[in-house]
Amino acid sequence: MHGGNVAIVGAAETRDLGTLPDRSVLQLHTEAAMRALSDAGLGPDDVDGIANDGMPPFDVSHYLGIRPRWIDGTSVGGCSFMLHVRHAAAAIAAGAANVVLITHGESGRSGVGTRPWAPDPASLSGQFEQPFGAGAPFATFTTPVLAFLEERGMTRRDLAEVVAAQREWSDGNPRAARNRRISADDVLAAREIAYPFTRDMCCVVTDGGGALVMTSAERARDLPSADRAVHLLGSGEAGGTPIVSQMDDLGSFGAFRTACGEALRTAGITHADVDHVMFYDAFAHLPLYMLEDSGFVGRGESGAFVADGGTRPGGALPMNTNGGGLSYTHTGKYGMFAIQEAVRQLRGEAFRQVPGVEVSVVQGVGMMFGAAGALVLGNRT
Amino acid sequence: MSSGPVPSPTPETAPFWESTRARAMRLPHCTPCGRPHFYPRSYCPFCHSAELEWREVSGRATLASYVINRRPGPAFEGASQIIALVRLAEGPRMMTNLVEVETDPVSLRLGMPLRVRYSERGDQVLPLFAPAEVAA
């Protein structure tokens, strides 16, 4: 769908990220919400639309004394927030809401105020994945990668290069969980988690939160945050498979192609117009899939593109400039943090700022290969 | 008897789990379009017909992809396990474990032929796969 002539006018993460045993999940949501509203120059009384994933949306609105007239609880895992932004834009464009607050909080490391995970042996995963040990994402989301690599003549070193490239972005960032440079050799030498994946090819596990405030571009112009507004230029979303074994193609994810294709098309731009990308990286293979499926490189070219520096500082396509879920933070649903970094880059406020970012593409994935969402964001309409 | 989670069948999957308990594997085949599918559904995912028939498949497969899980959950008693995606000779792909082979990438080649094995798990029987060269 087209951008809807809406803007992100507030964006913030929780003050701290990492290990936060003194905060409940609801506190993480609401701390991020109040910080994002403050960033926008708005308050809870201005909000009439609410969206989040992971708990009933009205838990957050009621906690803050907000009485929403528009609610979205779309829950498709870590890319839910890309869909919330897209749905909020439709709602604002249709007049169903004026100011939408999208929140995320997760006590992924400490588990404070979190419902315990309970496997369901009658679910598709419970019948056809978990009995074989495919439960934890590091041993499930990862299963197609050897097929991806072999089809292209690539190796696990290509996974290691993704990690090394992203560490150049998180290098020295005190907010990043892993913030020291590392070589591809070091990545390959680290402890094996699920061959071919070593420790550093798997995301960090953290506590934290983030929130976005959206409103019409017209109203954005009147806010104190007007000169920092980030505009939604295009968006897309798509569904995939509830169990990894049923991907149409182990070496390509159709939902990335659909979601990113629609986002670029509706934004009316080509790949050459994109200055910066955030590609949801719960594991090191995902940026490789996304580079190819989103059409930024040709089939089989992703490994060499990363290894040759294409995504590093100074490269042609700066990617995952906060260090990504592999290095910056990953609460369990990283998508909010991918959007936050795109907003910072577009505002010129990032820790490792890319010069002259005007258009950023954010590509998310959720529930392993269950869903995808893509946004094209710009600092001009 | 292997250790780990036990699948709980639902109405549309029960014939599959009944077949593995009988040391065979049956899948729904679509009568109009002729194609089998996995996981079992009430409608053919290709032509959307509800005219399905349960037919036995050969138990032959090839290795499509895998990981060697070095950190199995507590239910699996700690040993490394090969979590594999296999393509059945009849077409559908499924997740399984490889057995009767070293948990080492040197022993594993994508495309290698496999044969089904059956392993008791609680009141169910799981289809596992072994290299065809060693399988009976």
From TrEMBL, chain A:
Do you know which Pfam families this protein is assigned to?
Thiolase_C_1 (PF22691)
Which intervals hold domain Thiolase C-terminal? 239-379
GO terms for MF = acyltransferase activity, transferring groups other than amino-acyl groups
Lineage: superkingdom: Bacteria
The protein's matches in InterPro entries, at most eight in alphabetical order, are given as: Thiolase (IPR002155), Thiolase-like (IPR016039), Thiolase_C_2 (IPR055140)
Q: Which PANTHER family match?
A: ACETYL-COA C-ACETYLTRANSFERASE (PTHR42870), NON-SPECIFIC LIPID-TRANSFER PROTEIN-LIKE 2 (PTHR42870:SF1)
> Could you identify this protein by its name?
Thiolase
Q: Which organism is it from?
A: Pseudonocardia broussonetiae
Automatic annotation (TrEMBL), chain B:
Domain (ChsH2 C-terminal OB-fold): residue spans on this chain: 54-117
- State a single Pfam family of this protein: zf-ChsH2
Q: Does the keyword Signal apply?
A: no
Q: Which UniProt keywords apply?
A: DNA-binding
InterPro entries assigned: ChsH2_C, ChsH2_Znr, NA-bd_OB-fold, Thioester_dehydratase-like
Q: Which GO terms describe its molecular function?
A: DNA binding
Record domain ChsH2 rubredoxin-like zinc ribbon: where: 26-53
What's the protein called, per UniProt? DNA-binding protein
Q: Which organism is it from?
A: Pseudonocardia broussonetiae
